[in-house]
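sry for the spam today, last one i promise. struct tokens for design, 176 residues
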């Protein structure tokens, strides 16, 4: 049982590493066709970017099924770790940052504030190039991200607009 819990926890950590790489090089690369919708104003509950969640959920379901039916039980726990990561992503990214819930909460301190600010800085850049902070559950220090944005963009960032995910004025976008 302890080994299963360890597999689950390691999978959650590795999913964040995988997600950073996939977000930076796939979603902001050749997979921009799906991800672009996440950086534009959303109409309705869903966006094309949500297809990524369906793909990863399908992989997790397949791993859990293979582990249970073929007797490769560690696969069940890897799939469970992917599912746990997906839940944490839904809570932190879709709920907290992009307010896809029927209520909103803006953190005022601590880890959640840093996570919120880091992802808002990710969206401070229009388009797929020149973004910072590609993690979903890990956020580099805000001051480091501000320096990186300044180094990448020797001038103003995109003009203030309505937030792509919430439709609200984008007052939280960082400005120099």
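last one done:
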């Amino acid at each position: 049982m302890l080994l299963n819990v360890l597999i689950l926890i390691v999978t959650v950590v590795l999913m964040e590493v995988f997600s950073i790489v996939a977000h930076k090089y796939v979603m902001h690369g050749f997979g921009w066709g799906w991800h672009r919708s996440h950086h534009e104003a959303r109409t309705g509950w869903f966006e094309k970017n949500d297809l990524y969640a369906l793909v990863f959920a399908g992989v997790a379901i397949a791993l859990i099924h293979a582990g249970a039916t073929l007797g490769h039980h560690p696969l069940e726990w890897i799939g469970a770790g992917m599912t746990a990561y997906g839940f944490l992503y839904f809570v932190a990214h879709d709920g907290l940052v992009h307010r896809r819930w029927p209520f909103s909460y803006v953190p005022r301190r601590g880890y959640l504030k840093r996570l919120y600010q880091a992802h808002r800085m990710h969206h401070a850049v229009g388009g797929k190039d020149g973004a910072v902070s590609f993690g979903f559950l890990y956020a580099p220090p805000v001051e480091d991200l501000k320096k990186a944005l300044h180094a990448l963009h020797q001038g103003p960032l995109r003009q203030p607009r309505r937030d792509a995910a919430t439709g609200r004025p984008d007052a939280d976008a960082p400005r120099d």
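The helical segments are 2-30, 32-35, 50-70, 73-97, 110-122, 142-152. ok im logging off now
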